[in-house]
Prior knowledge:
This protein has helices at 13-22, 30-43, 56-65, 71-84, 88-92, 96-103, 109-127, 135-138, 146-156, 167-175, 184-194, 200-213. The chain has 249 residues and is mostly helical. Mean pLDDT is 93; it is low at 1-6. The protein is elongated and about 60 Å long. The two termini are 40 Å apart. 52% of the residues lie in helices and 0% in strands. α6 (96-103) crosses α7. It folds into 2 domains: 56-156, Endonuclease III, domain 1; 160-249, Orthogonal Bundle (Endonuclease Iii, domain 2), CATH 1.10.1670. It has 12 helices and no strands. The longest helix has 19 residues, at 109-127. It binds iron/sulfur cluster. Iron/sulfur cluster binds at residues 175-176, 214-215, 220-222, 225, 227-228, 231, 233, 236.
Amino acid sequence: MPSAQAKVRKPTAAAKTAKARKNGYDPLAPGRIKTILQRLDQTYPGVTCALKHKNAWELLVATILSAQCTDVRVNMVTPELFRKYPTPAHFAALKPEQLEPDIRSTGFFRNKSKSIVGAAKTIMQDFGGQVPDEMDKLLTVPGAARKTANVVLGSWFKKAVGVVVDTHVHRISRRLELTRNDDPKTIEQDLMKVLPQEKWIGFSHQIIHHGRALCVARKPKCAECPLENICHAADKTWSTVEIHKAAKP
Ligand code: SF4
């Protein structure tokens, strides 16, 4: 017999979603997803990766450098970096300490130097100097976790293997109730379930632009947002629709 002080179980994320659907609101309803995608297409047509690059290797390096750093800063560093070291072979011949001064301004330069030199060595030794175009191979390259691999696969090789989940995609997917999860890998799985595969690459680019232009981390510019009347985020700054307490970054 349960005691009077038996623990009350909190509803799981799935149970909450099921309840919301029963109450008539389903954040994952196909019609809602379609509207979100259409409005993103109208607002951010043809957006692409903001990191300057001429090949897969340069994009890989730029993406490693972009961790905890703005794309603008990375784009200031990479032209001179690739003029000085034009190929993976040039990077593979370095000691990480030799690279540090060139990338210092992007922050976390010691770890980034190790990753980039390690990546160059792996690409020279295991892949004949070519950045691999498969997820499982890319994940063996130092510095290329799933997000970085998705950037290279999507933006250079045009392969929709997954969805890039950076800080903007993380925050906005939660505000838009496309996920209730907090871990990037699980968020990616959630997005892959609700978005059509042909949108996986473009969605991330558009959301990253949206996160910079309007749906910023603090004080999002909701009054100017094309998604306003279908967004119920708890931290909206202006709203014509009801707020959902759980829809927060
Ligand atoms: S309405 Fe506000 S919180 Fe919602 S997506 Fe737009 S900017 Fe972000």
